[in-house]
Amino acid sequence: MRLLLVAAVSTFSLVAQATVIVPGATWTDTSGTPIQAHGAGILKVARSTFYWFGEDKASNTTLFHAVSCYTSTDLLTWTRQNNALTPIAGTMISGSNIVERPKVLFNKMNNEYVMWFHSDTSNYGAAMVGVATAKTPCGPYTYKASWNPLGAESRDESVFQDDDAAQTSYLLYASDNNQNFKISRLDANYYNVTAQVNVLTASTLEAPGIVKRNGQYYLFASHTSGWDPNPNRWFVASSISSAFSAQADLAPEAVRTYYSQNAFDLPLASGNAIYMGDRWRSDFLGTSTYIWLPLTWASGSPQLIWADVWSLNLAAGTWTIANGTTYEAENGVLSGSAVLASDSSFSGGKAVGFLGNGGSVTITVQGIGAAQWVSLYIANGDSTWRNTTVSVNGGAPVVVQQPDTGGGHVILSVPVKLNLKSGSNTITLGAGQSNFAADLDKIIVYTAS
Ligand SMILES: *[C@@H]1O[C@H](CO)[C@@H](O)[C@H](O)[C@H]1NC(C)=O
Ligand SMILES: *[C@@H]1O[C@H](CO)[C@@H](O)[C@H](O)[C@H]1NC(C)=O
Ligand SMILES: *[C@@H]1O[C@H](CO)[C@@H](O)[C@H](O)[C@H]1NC(C)=O
Ligand SMILES: *[C@@H]1O[C@H](CO)[C@@H](O)[C@H](O)[C@H]1NC(C)=O
User: Fold this and answer.
1) For tag attachment on the chain, is the N or C end more exposed, with fewer CB atoms within 10 Å?
2) Does the keyword field hold Zinc (predicted)?
């Protein structure tokens, strides 16, 4: 049997320009290559161009390969430019060290772009920040130094530029063995930190970002669980140096931030924002995907909205969440060892379990004669990823990766793009594989692409 990887299938989308954001899919750049920009930092330049800096992890290892630089005017179509930063042998940014979470600020006083990043040795023992500078957004950047800011450890970090006349900026960082989360002011050049202005003692936070909204400073961060996800939190303070509120969830705790970790939070014209997270795949780091979601203050507090497929009106700072057609797995035709599973967490109270390893389910859906996004709503109570074959109308199967969802009754959705003909199609999941797939609650077929 011929197995195609999902990444290969997504080349269908090269024909037509994507107009939707599909969290968790393999996103490709304008050359059709998967986007390698993990631990993202986004910089908007001249009101129209977005620069996305990130870790190129195509090697699947944690070691420094490159800080990539991509450009876009719509946040959907990304063109890879020259690498912004590459290894320099014999320095803290050699190819045997760590460079993570690159964030770039524009320093208007010096007319210079300044990149901050987590700079470390391969065992994360040095816990430094690094700085590099350039005269153009993608550089390449000139490496300046790596050091322990104010003499203390710094691992996961980000930067925040305030909107005062001087554009005072700050380093946000996990310090003191990731126990204390600190905020320190940068000097006027953005080359160093000058003073610690805040600390969340014993907060065990990492993966930070700050959005300023109506004069309030909203801090977003995860807790520390390695590459595994945890419920990311939000905090608010009335100034950068005043006490932050107690932690609160960004999303229902059980879904662990929809299996993602915060990387960057991009303010929108509407006063809302986009949450930009990483869905890390620790055993194949380069296949880690991006979870970008609407971050809304509609309730008065910041909350993530899960969206399988969504689009953005950048000028207005608003979004549209696509609607699809739902097909319950329990209404499909079960085959082999597949069984119905009952639980109130499943829509309709039922899911199909024991898929793969001899069990499969076939669901009949309506298509429009196009490559269409289909979201698989799954529960995987293991501590490791599973996968499932997906075959349309009896054709060659593709394999869809299925993260552990944090419990056998916790449901997440994973996307796959499938070529559906106009009218009735069958979608068979779990056939022809010797490993177990996740339990399947339902699938949703979308027409937006
Ligand atoms: C990284 O892992 C993916 C998934 O297994 C694989 O397709 C890819 O070839 C790997 N890359 C390298 C450089 O080994
Ligand atoms: C940053 O400033 C401190 C003094 O506060 C100094 O010791 C350190 O060398 C500086 N680091 C860099 C990279 O300039
Ligand atoms: C999706 O359905 C909801 C509920 O019916 C509706 O409010 C919303 O406008 C629909 N969205 C789109 C993009 O059609
Ligand atoms: C699917 O999962 C099984 C069991 O974990 C693994 O052996 C296999 O390599 C995976 N296949 C793909 C294509 O990821």
Assistant:
1) N
2) no
- Upstream peptide bond of 102 is cis (omega within 30 degrees of 0): no
Q: Residue 108 corresponds to which tokens in the numbers above?
A: 């208007």
Order of strands across the sheet that contains 273-279: 261-267, 273-279, 289-296, 303-304
The answer to whether residues 206 and 222 touch, using CB atoms and an 8 Å cutoff, is yes
3 state SS of 406: coil
Instruction: State the distance from the centre of ligand 2 to the C-alpha of 23, rounded, in angstroms.
Output: 40
End-to-end, the C-alpha distance of the chain in Å comes to 29
* Residue type for position 20: V
- Say which residues have a Cβ less than 8 Å from residue 46's Cβ, sequence separation at least 6: none
Element of type H or E holding 259:
helix 256-259
- Residues in the chain, how many? 449
356 DSSP 8-state letter: B
Asked whether 263 and 207 are in contact (CB, 8 A), the reply is yes
Atom in ligand 1 nearest the alpha carbon of residue 284: 2
Residue with tokens 């199609």: 425
DSSP string, 178-217: TTEEEEEEE-TTSSSEEEEEEEETT--EEEEEEEEETTEE
Do 293 and 255 touch, CB atoms closer than 8 A?
no
The residues that bridge with 99 in the sheet, in sequence order, are 119
**And the tokens for 137?**
């957004």
- Give the atom of ligand 4 at the shortest distance from the alpha carbon of 399: 13
Residue 48: which pLDDT band, with cuts at 50, 70 and 90?
Answer: confident
Which ligand is located closest to the Cα atom of residue 58?
Answer: 1
Instruction: Say whether pTM exceeds 0.90.
Output: yes
C-alpha to C-alpha distance for 35 and 80, rounded to whole angstroms: 8
